[in-house]
Amino acid sequence: MMLLFNHSKIVKKVLQKEFKRLDIPFEAVSSSEIKPVGNPCKEKMKILKKRLAEYGIQVVEDPKEKLVAKIKEVIHQMVYSENNLPTTKNSVLLSEKLGYSYGYLSTIFSESTLISIENYIILKKIELVKLYLLRNDVSITETAFKLNYSSVGHLCNQFKKKTGLTPSEYQSIMSKRIAAFV
Amino acid sequence: MANPPSKTSNPPVKVILADDDQDDQILFQDAIESLNLSIELIPINHGKELIEYFDNPMNPIPDIIFLDLNMPYLSGLDCLPILRKMEALKTIPIAIYSTSSSKRDMEESLIRGANIYINKPHDFSKLKLIIKKVMEINWQYMNSDFDPDTFVMSI
Predict the structure, then answer these.
(1) Where in chain A are all domains bearing CATH 1.10.10.60?
(2) Are the Cβ atoms of B111 and A165 closer than 8 angstroms?
(3) Cα separations (Å) of A179 from A173, A175, B23?
(4) Interface predicted TM-score (ipTM)
(5) Cβ contact (<8 Å) for A76 and B140?
(6) Which of B90, B96, B98, B110 to mutate to test the interface with A (most CBs of A within 10 A)?
(7) Which residues of A touch B117 (CB under 8 A)?
(8) pLDDT per position as a tens digit, B94-104
(9) Which overall architecture, per CATH, does domain A64-181 show?
(10) Which of residues 91-110 of B touch A (CB under 8 A)?
(11) Is residue B2 part of a domain?
(12) Residues 6+ apart with CB under 8 A from B20
């Protein structure tokens, strides 16, 4: 059974359900930021965090970690915007969206994630390339175009550099693995 | 979001190394210690001992497993399907750590559910670099919305 799903829709549903269960009203600030309305008691918030953790949803409180989460969110939107990838440089875009200098953002980011923002963007793109490789309806040329690679060769090189495998090796291994586990 | 293993105030990242070669165990331990990351290494001597480790529910589940291919009693390739069937290990990355550079071993390992294939380097500084890279990438899978099912890499 092949499933296609929309992460943000699922998260939204889960949040609605769990906040309602505890009778805490909230408003959405962005797709990954919400604000409880009023002042819910600490006990309730503790239960809420525990329940959300069961879904793999973590509440981030440390201000630096919050900023890192926001950087990741902007990068996610950048990579997943597909055909209309912004022409502005990533560094300029991040700095504009988040209101901090790029130097500050990259220091905070690599302290928390162990890798640079540039490297993270590449990994994030490779993750999406993998998803397309596992689907049969998108060609590698189309994938390269969608993700703003200058050519198929560029995509293949970056894929090989990061995973050690060529895209076709990856496809072959994954399809054999799926067959072995069914 | 958890903090990276470099911050000592946080619980260390738990790493299992299953390898029957004592020299390789020591080398791996030295490499980890010199990396300045907060890592706790759990050494295991062969495949059978690894399976027995997970049969005891009191033993902590690691954040990543490094697994040698050539081991007595139970080889790394034999361990893979057993480990992958364990509910607690479904999303735990497994890195094969082997002297074999054969493409067949690499492919077979990844097909059987390994995430990473490492060709054991002869050089200590290379080993350090490889472990560092693996821990960095693994950290992204632990802390971002990366899908562990698609995690495959060969170094």
Answers:
(1) 64-181
(2) no
(3) 10, 6, 37
(4) 0.81
(5) no
(6) B110
(7) 164
(8) 999 998 888 89
(9) Orthogonal Bundle (1.10)
(10) 107, 110
(11) no
(12) B45, B46, B68, B70, B71, B72
